[in-house]
Amino acid sequence: MKERFLMKEIDPAAYTAMLGLEKYLSGTGISPLHQEMIRVRASQLNGCAFCINQHTQDARKAGETEQRLYLLSAWKESPQFTPAERIILAMTEEITFISREGLTETTYQQALKEFGLKGTSELIMAINVINAWNRIGISTHRVPGQ
Prior knowledge:
The protein is mostly helical and 146 residues long. It has 7 helices and no strands. 70% of the residues lie in helices and 0% in strands.
């Protein structure tokens, strides 16, 4: 696969707007580890190799273990994830696969109970931002490791 173009070079205003969303996320109450968990899992679901490569490295730097990274795709069957992380992962899958059911009422209510309205809003934004990056990466054929 040949990389098509770099968004930051061809459309710097669009790229800068996306970076603005990243800046917003850095000021949220979502821990860096949970942000990377969201990024890796959504990227796995979307099949964005560039983002999987980037965010597994970032997750390790944030303190994530190899074991949990290996088990992330099977989190429902893995006891290594906390109840709060299970809510985050369920939200990530439901929002990423929006055309199936979207964010279910059950998961939404669990998120509200665990994270409150503001925290739930921040998680929704984090999930949507990585989904946008995934679509950019896949559309432009970003090559992992470059």
